[in-house]
Amino acid sequence: MYDYHTHSNYSDGDFLAAMLAAAQRQGLDGIGFADHCNVSADPSQQQFAKEFGFNLDLTHERRRDAIESLRERYDIAIFDAVEMDYRPADEADIADFLDTATFDYAIGSVHTVEGHNLHDETYFGAKSREERRDVVETYVDRVVSMIDSELFAIAGHVDLPQRNEALRGLFSEDHYRRIASALEMSRTVPELNAGRVTDDYGQFHPGPAFREILAEYDVQFTLGTDAHTPESLRENAEELAAFVERWDVDPVVIQG
Questions:
Q1: What is the pLDDT of residues 183-200, one digit of tens each?
Q2: What is the reported pLDDT for 256?
Q3: Would you tell me the crossing angle of helices 56-71 and 91-101 to the nearest 10 degrees?
């Protein structure tokens, strides 16, 4: 069992060693550190990166050295990865950075629309229902563009707005089919993301209705706890393992 989506102190997670110890205790075969990274030239995106300390574009070589120094202490495969913020306007900058940084793999994620993080219930909740539908439409457009770009091995939490109560339920079957169709034609693989399965949202990404449509298109997925702490890694890995056993699925293995 490989967990391809965790975070460390190089973005908004716990220390590398603490996350590795938790993964080993959990009996994982491999763990991927996919810390947040943003290389957009847009001022609002740069400000967000500064305020949250998402500076992997500046620190990835230092993190790589740290991972190498920890390998011999843990009997587990360790992947040097990245979770990139994606906007269509940033494709050239993202491509240049990924070519230079040579990560084992990259996760692409759409986190913002209209310059606001999609978790922002205050901002999106103040909009009319029609405006919120437009936000989800924009999100889907960007996810499809991200998949079509072929920049990423993994597409992160492809129905992320479902986490936000103000946007939840606004995905249509057509939205799901557009994303599924793009994935069917792409090397990019979606993940089964457990980042909110144990909290008030209580679902994997993608959700059940979306997973049914992905199955129609024969789209497989990787596994990711999206864990930021050792405790969340343990809890989310248990949920993923139970899902795999219950539904007898065979997750995709990414060759780093």
A1: 999 999 999 999 999 998
A2: 66
A3: 30
> What per-residue confidence (pLDDT) applies to 44?
84
| Pair of tokens at residue 4 | 């391809």
CA gap 64, 12 in Å, rounded: 17
DSSP letters along 52-89, please?
HT--HHHHHHHHHHHHHHHHTT-SSEEEEEEEEE--GG
SS (H, E, C) 130-151: HHHHHHHHHHHHHHHHHHHHCC
Cite the DSSP H helix spans in 83-198. Answer: 91-101, 121-125, 129-149, 173-184
2-247: CATH topology: TIM Barrel (3.20.20)
Contact 186, 158 (CB under 8 A): no
- Boundaries of every domain in the chain: 2-247
Cis peptide bond upstream of 206, omega within 30: yes
Rounded to whole angstroms, the Cα distance separating 147 from 187 reads 8
Percent helix, strand, coil in the chain, to 5, is 45, 20, 35
Dist CA 39 CA 95 (whole Å): 10
- CB-CB contact of 214 with 180 (8 Å): yes
Summarize the confidence of residues 96-100 as an average pLDDT.
98
Q: What phi and psi, each to the nearest 5 degrees, are found at residue 113?
A: -140, 135
Cβ(85)–Cβ(37) below 8 Å: yes
What is the pTM assigned to this prediction? 0.97
Q: Of 180, 17, 163, 4, whose CA–CA distance to 83 is shortest?
A: 4
SS3 92: helix
Residue 35's DSSP bridge partners are 82
